[in-house]
Amino acid sequence: MSDLRRFAVFGGVYNNFLSLEATLRDARALGCEAIFCLGDMGGFGPQPDRVFPLLRDVPDLYVMQGNYDHSIGNRLEDCACGYTDPRDNYYAQISYDYTLANTADAHKDWLRDLPTEFRHDWAGKRVLMAHGSPRQVNEFLWESMCPDAFLEHLLKSYEADVLFVTHTGIPWKRELEGGRQVINVGAIGRPANNGRTSVDYALVEVDDEGVRVAFREVAYDHEALAALMREEKLPEPFVETILTGWWTTCLEVMPARERALGVY
Questions:
Q1: What is the layout of strands, in order, in the sheet containing 34-37?
Q2: For labelling, which of 35, 71, 185, 203 has a CA lying 20 to 30 Å from the CA of 127?
């Protein structure tokens, strides 16, 4: 029997230090030898600086830059999240201004200098990790908008057999011919618009038979997070999402099929 190796891949921390703690604890308890964060440390949640002690200078943790991190690190005016609807941009700007004002300069500099992709060879498979997509940091790869031919094109163009991304906040995975795969790991900073208050990350198992990916659901103290959000006077629609598991903002960028699964 070949040796089994385990890895964890997550994205979209969104200032949620409580779900980050729970995710890291769960991955380590399962024996993951390395944990990969695909970016977007800030936004949405309270007290941005509380995520950094969990992320910086940790031997088993590898952190990538997302669009939010690029903007915060370079002290830009907005998050470059890729929204086009005025309501989405209104709430995104509130969150961005709060995060920019409450992130220490030392952490901003760290975000500015993070790498933008990871590559590995797992069981002979070329593994590529990116934030939005390999071709654009803030590209939304929604499941309903990604036909197999498009995913095959991405894998061929960027010389990968297994691709991990985040940015949309909703997890999904697709298996293609020849053992190739595309996995959107979702986000751990807020629930996946499914009516559950938990968050998700990708648990990866690697052995001589290949690369297998399963989503792992993690509960955390979401009520404590909601209380902190209210103390920080963050928008009540953000708090509602944490308490109910349903998105109340960032809805207009979502394709019809994904939006129909929610309540708004």
A1: 61-63, 34-37, 5-10, 199-207, 210-218
A2: 71
